[in-house]
Amino acid sequence: MPELLNTRVEACYQLAEDFFKRRFPRPEVSFKLRGQKAGVAHLTENLLRFNPKLYAENREHFLKQTVAHEVAHLIAHQMFGGRIQPHGEEWQLIMRGVYELPPDRCHTYDVGRRKSTRFLYLCQCPSGEFPFSAQRHRLVAQGRRYFCRRCRATLVFSGEQRVE
After folding, report:
1. 69 is in an annotated binding site
2. Where along the chain is Zn(2+) bound (predicted)?
3. Residue 156 belongs to what domain range?
Protein backbone atom coordinates (compact mmCIF):
# COMPACT_ATOMS: atom_id res chain seq x y z
CA MET A 1 0.00 0.00 0.00
CA PRO A 2 2.61 2.66 0.88
CA GLU A 3 4.63 2.23 -2.33
CA LEU A 4 2.32 4.35 -4.52
CA LEU A 5 2.03 6.96 -1.81
CA ASN A 6 5.81 7.16 -1.34
CA THR A 7 6.19 7.51 -5.11
CA ARG A 8 3.72 10.42 -5.07
CA VAL A 9 5.56 12.10 -2.17
CA GLU A 10 8.80 11.89 -4.18
CA ALA A 11 7.07 13.26 -7.31
CA CYS A 12 5.76 16.22 -5.29
CA TYR A 13 9.25 16.94 -4.00
CA GLN A 14 10.72 16.79 -7.50
CA LEU A 15 8.08 19.25 -8.76
CA ALA A 16 8.90 21.62 -5.89
CA GLU A 17 12.63 21.33 -6.55
CA ASP A 18 12.13 22.11 -10.25
CA PHE A 19 9.91 25.09 -9.40
CA PHE A 20 12.07 26.61 -6.65
CA LYS A 21 15.43 25.51 -8.13
CA ARG A 22 16.63 24.10 -4.82
CA ARG A 23 16.81 20.80 -2.99
CA PHE A 24 14.53 19.82 -0.08
CA PRO A 25 15.23 17.14 2.55
CA ARG A 26 12.86 14.20 2.21
CA PRO A 27 10.47 13.55 5.09
CA GLU A 28 9.80 10.42 7.04
CA VAL A 29 6.44 9.00 5.94
CA SER A 30 4.19 7.21 8.41
CA PHE A 31 0.82 5.47 8.08
CA LYS A 32 -0.01 5.84 11.76
CA LEU A 33 -2.90 8.28 11.61
CA ARG A 34 -6.47 7.45 12.58
CA GLY A 35 -9.70 9.34 12.88
CA GLN A 36 -11.01 12.10 10.64
CA LYS A 37 -7.74 13.59 9.41
CA ALA A 38 -6.46 12.32 6.06
CA GLY A 39 -2.94 13.57 6.61
CA VAL A 40 -0.78 15.64 8.93
CA ALA A 41 2.52 17.40 8.30
CA HIS A 42 4.80 17.71 11.34
CA LEU A 43 6.86 20.69 10.26
CA THR A 44 9.78 20.66 12.67
CA GLU A 45 10.17 16.87 12.55
CA ASN A 46 9.94 16.77 8.72
CA LEU A 47 7.36 14.01 9.10
CA LEU A 48 4.23 13.19 7.09
CA ARG A 49 1.52 11.01 8.65
CA PHE A 50 -1.29 9.58 6.55
CA ASN A 51 -4.52 7.80 7.40
CA PRO A 52 -4.37 4.31 5.82
CA LYS A 53 -8.14 3.77 5.99
CA LEU A 54 -8.98 7.02 4.16
CA TYR A 55 -6.16 6.30 1.69
CA ALA A 56 -7.58 2.84 0.89
CA GLU A 57 -11.10 4.23 0.45
CA ASN A 58 -10.14 7.29 -1.65
CA ARG A 59 -6.89 6.24 -3.31
CA GLU A 60 -6.93 8.29 -6.53
CA HIS A 61 -7.97 11.62 -4.98
CA PHE A 62 -5.85 10.97 -1.89
CA LEU A 63 -2.71 10.46 -3.97
CA LYS A 64 -3.37 13.52 -6.10
CA GLN A 65 -4.68 16.05 -3.57
CA THR A 66 -4.00 14.94 0.00
CA VAL A 67 -0.37 13.97 -0.51
CA ALA A 68 0.35 17.25 -2.33
CA HIS A 69 -1.51 19.17 0.39
CA GLU A 70 0.70 17.73 3.15
CA VAL A 71 3.95 17.98 1.18
CA ALA A 72 3.08 21.63 0.45
CA HIS A 73 3.02 22.28 4.20
CA LEU A 74 6.58 20.98 4.57
CA ILE A 75 7.81 22.86 1.49
CA ALA A 76 6.18 26.11 2.68
CA HIS A 77 7.76 25.71 6.11
CA GLN A 78 11.20 25.09 4.62
CA MET A 79 10.89 27.94 2.11
CA PHE A 80 9.25 30.63 4.23
CA GLY A 81 9.88 29.67 7.86
CA GLY A 82 7.70 28.88 10.83
CA ARG A 83 5.79 32.15 11.11
CA ILE A 84 3.46 31.59 8.14
CA GLN A 85 -0.19 30.62 8.38
CA PRO A 86 -0.83 26.88 7.82
CA HIS A 87 -3.12 27.50 4.82
CA GLY A 88 -1.87 31.00 4.07
CA GLU A 89 -0.70 32.55 0.82
CA GLU A 90 2.67 30.75 0.81
CA TRP A 91 1.02 27.33 1.07
CA GLN A 92 -1.59 28.34 -1.50
CA LEU A 93 1.18 29.47 -3.88
CA ILE A 94 2.69 26.00 -3.70
CA MET A 95 -0.64 24.24 -4.21
CA ARG A 96 -1.54 26.38 -7.24
CA GLY A 97 1.85 27.20 -8.71
CA VAL A 98 3.80 24.01 -8.10
CA TYR A 99 1.12 21.30 -8.07
CA GLU A 100 -1.57 23.07 -10.13
CA LEU A 101 -4.19 21.93 -7.63
CA PRO A 102 -6.91 23.81 -5.77
CA PRO A 103 -5.75 24.92 -2.31
CA ASP A 104 -8.50 23.03 -0.50
CA ARG A 105 -8.09 23.16 3.26
CA CYS A 106 -10.25 20.14 4.08
CA HIS A 107 -11.05 16.83 2.47
CA THR A 108 -14.56 15.58 1.79
CA TYR A 109 -13.91 11.89 2.43
CA ASP A 110 -16.60 9.93 4.24
CA VAL A 111 -15.21 9.42 7.73
CA GLY A 112 -18.36 8.15 9.42
CA ARG A 113 -19.01 9.00 13.02
CA ARG A 114 -17.83 6.59 15.60
CA LYS A 115 -20.22 5.68 18.36
CA SER A 116 -19.69 7.34 21.71
CA THR A 117 -21.15 6.77 25.12
CA ARG A 118 -23.00 9.66 26.73
CA PHE A 119 -23.65 9.88 30.45
CA LEU A 120 -26.93 11.61 31.29
CA TYR A 121 -26.82 14.34 33.94
CA LEU A 122 -29.86 16.13 35.33
CA CYS A 123 -30.72 19.41 37.02
CA GLN A 124 -33.94 20.70 38.61
CA CYS A 125 -35.37 22.14 35.38
CA PRO A 126 -38.24 20.18 33.74
CA SER A 127 -36.24 19.66 30.55
CA GLY A 128 -32.84 19.60 32.23
CA GLU A 129 -31.04 16.66 30.64
CA PHE A 130 -27.35 16.99 29.79
CA PRO A 131 -25.44 14.25 27.92
CA PHE A 132 -21.81 14.26 29.11
CA SER A 133 -18.86 12.73 27.28
CA ALA A 134 -16.80 10.03 29.00
CA GLN A 135 -14.05 12.58 29.62
CA ARG A 136 -16.41 15.07 31.31
CA HIS A 137 -18.00 12.21 33.30
CA ARG A 138 -14.50 11.27 34.59
CA LEU A 139 -13.89 14.89 35.62
CA VAL A 140 -17.10 14.81 37.69
CA ALA A 141 -15.89 11.57 39.33
CA GLN A 142 -12.67 13.43 40.23
CA GLY A 143 -14.63 16.21 41.94
CA ARG A 144 -15.38 18.78 39.23
CA ARG A 145 -18.87 20.29 39.38
CA TYR A 146 -21.04 21.54 36.51
CA PHE A 147 -24.08 23.77 36.87
CA CYS A 148 -27.26 24.34 34.88
CA ARG A 149 -27.18 27.82 33.35
CA ARG A 150 -30.93 28.21 33.85
CA CYS A 151 -31.61 27.03 37.40
CA ARG A 152 -27.99 27.12 38.59
CA ALA A 153 -28.33 23.72 40.28
CA THR A 154 -25.42 21.28 40.30
CA LEU A 155 -25.79 18.69 37.54
CA VAL A 156 -26.13 15.17 38.94
CA PHE A 157 -25.48 11.86 37.16
CA SER A 158 -28.76 10.03 36.57
CA GLY A 159 -27.10 6.62 36.43
CA GLU A 160 -28.22 6.35 32.80
CA GLN A 161 -25.96 6.13 29.74
CA ARG A 162 -26.64 5.87 26.04
CA VAL A 163 -24.63 5.18 22.93
CA GLU A 164 -24.92 7.78 20.16
Report:
1. yes
2. 69, 73
3. 117-163
Same domain as 91, residue 55: yes
> Where is average pLDDT lowest: 1-5, 60-64, 91-95?
1-5
Instruction: Indicate if 34 and 80 belong to the same structural domain.
Output: yes
73 is in an annotated binding site: yes
Residue 70 falls in the annotated catalytic set: yes
31-77 pLDDT, tens digit per residue, is 999 989 999 999 999 999 999 999 999 999 999 999 999 999 999 99
Residues 6+ apart with CB under 8 A from 124: 148, 151, 153
DSSP output for 15-48: HHHHHHTS--PPPEEE----SS-SEEEETTTTEE
Together in a domain, 41 and 78: yes
Residue 1 pLDDT more than 90?
no
What's the pTM value of the predicted model, to 2 decimals?
Answer: 0.71
24-37 burial, b at 16+ Cβ within 10 Å, e below that, comes to beebebeeebeeee
Question: Do 48 and 71 contact (CB within 8 A), yes or no?
Answer: yes
